[in-house]
Amino acid sequence: MAISLEQAITSIVSIFQNYARCSGDEHKLCQTELKELLQKELPTWTPTEFRECDYNKFMSVLDTNKDHEVDFVEYMRSLACLCIYCHEYFKDCPPKPLCSQ
C-alpha cells in the first residue's frame, strides 16, 4: 500500500497526463485543458466568476517559455508555489489537538 506522499505524487502526475491527453500531447496542457483541470480538480479554489480573460492571464503567468502551452515543469512550479502559499497561510494557525489515546 502506497503511503500518502507517494499517492500525492502519483495523483499529481496522473492528473496532468489525463488532462494533457485530451489534445493528443500528454506532455503539455493547452489553455482549454488547463481551464478544465482548474475547474474540475480545484473547484473551490477557482472562482466561478473567472472570465476567459482571467484564464488567459493565468495561462500567460504559468507559460514561462511562451509557447502557449503549459508543460509539466511549468505545471509543477505552479503547484509548488500553491503549496508554499498554503504552508505560509496556515503555519500560524493553532495546531490540531493531539489524540487523547
From TrEMBL:
<dbReference type="InterPro" id="IPR018247">
    <property type="entry name" value="EF_Hand_1_Ca_BS"/>
</dbReference>
<dbReference type="InterPro" id="IPR013787">
    <property type="entry name" value="S100_Ca-bd_sub"/>
</dbReference>
<protein>
    <submittedName>
        <fullName>Protein S100-A3</fullName>
    </submittedName>
</protein>
<dbReference type="InterPro" id="IPR001751">
    <property type="entry name" value="S100/CaBP7/8-like_CS"/>
</dbReference>
<feature type="domain" description="S100/CaBP-9k-type calcium binding subdomain">
    <location>
        <begin position="5"/>
        <end position="47"/>
    </location>
</feature>
<dbReference type="InterPro" id="IPR034325">
    <property type="entry name" value="S-100_dom"/>
</dbReference>
<dbReference type="Pfam" id="PF01023">
    <property type="entry name" value="S_100"/>
</dbReference>
<dbReference type="InterPro" id="IPR011992">
    <property type="entry name" value="EF-hand-dom_pair"/>
</dbReference>
<dbReference type="GO" id="GO:0046872">
    <property type="term" value="F:metal ion binding"/>
</dbReference>
<keyword id="KW-0106">Calcium</keyword>
<comment type="similarity">
    <text>Belongs to the S-100 family.</text>
</comment>
<keyword id="KW-0479">Metal-binding</keyword>
<keyword id="KW-0677">Repeat</keyword>
